[in-house]
Amino acid sequence: MSAVPCHSCRLSLFGLLLLALLAAGCGDMTSTPGEVLAVNKHNFRSVVIGSKKPVMLEFWSLNCKTCKALEPHLAALAQEHEELVVAKVNSEQSQEIASDYGVRTVPTVIILKDGDEIRRKVAPKPQELADLVAPYVTTK
Fold first, then answer.
1. In the annotation, is 9 catalytic?
2. Per-residue pLDDT tens for 97-128?
C-alpha cells in the first residue's frame, strides 16, 4: 500500500486547498482587461476590499433587464481601463453583501477605493458608467 496519493487524488486535494484559500479571502484575484469578475461571499474580500485598484461594483439580479443592458458596457470599461477592477454581485445569491451596502434596488453601481465606497448610482444608464469612474481612471 502506497502512502503517496495518486495523481487524481493530488489534483482533488489541490482543488480543495485552492477553494479553501479563496473562501478565506487569500490569493490574488485580479482581473484581466475586459473581464468582469463575479464576486460572492467567498471572494468578495480579496477581489473588492483588498483591491489596490479602484473597483466598479455592480449589484444585479437575473430578472433585471436594465442589469443585462449594462453588461456590455461594464465589459468595455474593464477592457479599456487596466487600472480598474470591474466586478458584479448577484444580489439574490449574495443577500448579505447587498444588505451590508444597503442595496435595495438593482442595478446599483458602487465605486470603491481602498475598500471604501466613494460613489454610488442607482439604476445608472449605460452612458453614465464612464462618468462614474472618470475621476479614478486614466483616459486613453
1. no
2. 999 999 999 999 999 999 999 999 999 999 99
